[in-house]
Specification:
The structure is a single chain. The chain is an alpha+beta fold. The chain has one domain: 2-Layer Sandwich (Nucleotidyltransferase, domain 5), CATH 3.30.420. Helices cover about 40% and strands about 20% of the residues. It is built from 3 helices and 4 strands, in the order αβββαβα. Strands 3-2-1-4 form a 4-stranded mixed beta sheet. α2 (about 65-85) packs parallel to α3. The radius of gyration is 14 Å and the shape is globular. The N and C termini lie far apart (about 35 Å).
Amino acid sequence: MALSKKDRRLRIKRRIRKIVSGTASQPRLSVYRSNKEIYAQIINDENGVTLVAASSIEKDVKAKGNKTEIASIVGKAIAEKAVKAGIDKVAFDRGGYLYHGRVKALAEAAREGGLKF
């Protein structure tokens, strides 16, 4: 029997998380994508602490446009907050989603904002 879409994504996510881990020197940039919103967090997995977060539901990020444009705004916002917090290098965790569309737009905007990964 074939896996459901959700089970397939969780299997891919577990496979990625075996390899990608956030440290104090290089925290993890985690992406979560729902049908309506997109969320990004920079996490130090050694201490289990979220250092910086941005999402499409924040007042300063709320913008009009399609979902891909909003994802790029969130990417720029997370990069600004990270640079302000002294973070410039991260490990990208796509969360089991394909590197395509909104996830790609967020990642490229974060790179333009000054994050290296």
